[in-house]
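Minutes, project check-in
Item: structure for the 487-residue chain
Input as provided by the requester:
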Amino acid sequence: MYITMVSPELAPIAKVGGLADVVIGLSKDLVKKGHNVEIMLPMYQGMRYDMIRDMEEAYAELWVPRYAEWVPEKVFTGIVEGVRCYFFTCGNKFNRDEIYGYDDDMYRFVHFNRSVLEFMKKTDKSPDIIHCHDWQTGLVPVIMYDHYADTGMNKTRAVFTIHNIEHQGQCWFGEDLLASIGMDCGQYYRFDRLQDNIKHNMINLLKAGIIYSNFVTTVSPTYCKEIKESDGKGLEPTLNANSDKLGGILNGLDYEYWNPATDPYLELNYDIESFDKKFTNKGSLRYRLGLADEYRPIVACIARLVPQKGLHLIKHAIYQTLEKGGQFVLLGSSPDEAINEDFRRIANELSDNPNVYIEIGYNEELAHIIYAGSDMLLVPSIFEPCGLTQLIALRYGSVPVVRSTGGLADTVFDVDHSGKGFASSNGFSFCDVNEDGINSALNRAIECWFYHGENFMKLARNGMRCDYSWNNSGNDYVNIYNYIKAH
């Protein structure tokens, strides 16, 4: 199959969050499976150009509508981790310091959407599948079916993936937004089309992707159920009206990169057969962070420090872990400096305690060492579309302690409540978003480590046996591609 990914992000060259990892991980797996895959994304000023191979100009003058005029722009191409990519200048609209966060983001991305389709028309590209990711690409299926279907793409089918329904763009633009790329807005101001469900005089690009795509996916089965029932951020009616083409596919993890048996950051590599070597990495982590070398479990948390991640629960867990005799390691940062300062205050308060370490920031090497050296990984999210940290923890034999929501509920099975017991469960979970809730899981995990060590090791090894690689998720996507091609 010929598959084109259209995305606002791509790891490792233009990454803000997990979306970037998903696009490159899925693309690489599809290439391994023998499919022809291309990725199209904006050409950002701050991209990691050093990680793009054989970059060159692909189209010198791509004329794209801008209101009543047609303006020229350039398209470049290069190889990222073995996958062919195309980069769109869009009149230098993305030549800025950050990827997102500007008042004209909606205008920039709809221009990118139109540029992608115009480029495909001019270069006679007619993929079997166009796979679009999040609101930034939601207009691609609309433009394709309403303006380019008769240009060789009449058999092309569109898949749209919702990575986080909380992000729907700046829904305060209406008619002018489509006019800016030469489209008449009149026919789209309808509830069953692009009209925002709450702000009726505005356009919703995420809704556009849902309505016009042949299939819509979310990044885990439980998250798919949650957004239809109550967490759809205003889009519940739209999701339920299109439920016959909506499904949840769990994100995969790059098992080549996240592999304790080959990880170059670790002092000692290990796998499930040499699990005892993990304890060397625990000692290495303690030495690096200045933690006491004592008989205690290490509870770790690696997270973006944003409200979604359950900040009040993370704070409570620091003190609860210390009270229960454990050690706590936090690595994370927030785009909100007030949140960073709050955690720095806790770090200063506990600076003399040899059983806690808090680092505000992100350090890739340290993250690997924490996964390998920790006994447990805490993920107390308020909501979590999929989550990657718990998948990495399982891979490295660190037992997850999570809130049962979204992808966390689909990947972490509580030893006491899942019915699987120590034979095949892999962690601890809780439901209530309060101190009693997190205590119910964290206390059980720490007590299991102290008093039932052999059983705790079973949970860790069970986690390492799990297969959450892209191979399985990639197969699910191929099945969807084949299904919509045939219908």
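Outcome recorded: The first helix runs from residue 18 to 32.
No further action items on this chain.
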